[in-house]
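Quick log. Single chain, no ligands specified.
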Amino acid sequence: PIQHIIVLADGADSEQKEGVPELIDVLTASGVTVSFVSIGNGPDVPWLQQMAARGNGRFHFTDRAANLPQIFTQETTSIQRSYLIEERFFPTLAGRSPILAGISTVPPLYGYVGTTAKDTAQVILETHLGDPLLAAWQYGLGRSVAWTSDATGRWAAEWVPWAGFPAFWAQAVRWTTSPDRDNSAETGITLVEDEARIRVDARDADGALLNNLSLVANVISPDGVARPIPLDLVAPGRYAGRFVPTTEGAYLIRLSGGLMDAGEDGPTIGQTTGWVLGYSPEYRLAGPDPVLLAALAAETGGRDLRGDPLAAIAHDLPATTAVRPIWPWLLLVATVLLPADVALRRLVIGRADLARAGAAVARRLWPRRASPAPRAERVTRLFQAKERAGRGREPAPPEAPLETPPPPVPAGEAARPGAPTGEAAPDAADDTLAARLRQRRESRNRPSQDASPPDQP
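-> predicted structure:
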């Protein structure tokens, strides 16, 4: 895979310079290229150019942020590798396969299509750049072959007239159909502690043990990661390998291989099997352990009931006592009762207060039902007050016109008939207003006198 880093920096304010060269050296040693982009001109531009050259990358300068997408596109295009490689090269052998049976030398090719091999594929021939040229893959019960060059006069100009050209393609097609394949192999997987051990017993069609096989078990874990596990010959016809499973679930194991001697067109092995890793071994159900149970009973003061199972329900255990403090509950009760005690001592609540409180609660609970009651009560009280006022007050007499009061009577003058005296009014029970009204009526009816009577001797 291509690993490339693009660093954006300010050409006038690149302060974090310490440790950058060392970090770039570590990246380039790992196959990572580093390019630098300077935004704006400044004194740090030469240093950024040096770092770009040190990281086997390119240097870009821009004074506008709008140019960054174009720079990124240019970088992506420049680091992308062309998938069409047209160069003269000789294929190299990467793995044994019956497809190359009887073929020891091959002519050069002039191009191919760059690809990447699948995790479970077997690469047989490689290019000068390490890309797969011929790969084989077992998928279920079928087989497939990938050839990344061509079979015409463009890239395989020297392969077409080659004498082994027909045999090469015939063996490739024959391998995919696998008429000579023999699946007389028994595969078993055993979990020992944290390690899974693969065991394969291989035989040919006649039952003879196969001791010269190159077997590889491709193990695909439940998360889709494939790992090739080489199988070594540990006994006549028996091959073994091991791996450490890390995830619970189903594992797919593809067994493939053939004879190590490429010149011998013998049987091949191709088999797919599965294996499931359950829970951790600590959850595995184990049988009873009487010795351990007896030791636990003796250590804890118990007894072994295997001889007398009914003793398990016997009521002969000694009674035990336990003390539980109640002060938290008492403290809670005191906390709740203290406000109530203070309220009873300080507050005086009468019947009127209880009535108002009940009315307020009723208005809250039944607002529609309780709202007309206070209004009707106020109207009733108003009518009662008017009735009491009407009963306690007499009707007032009609008002008379006000007149000038009579002149005062001189001392020694005899009282005239019908004249008022200085004594109290006859009707002392009347109020003052009624007495004044009567005085005014009497003065209006009194005969007028032009002169005062003569003095008496």
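Residues 409-430 have pLDDT under 50 and may be disordered.
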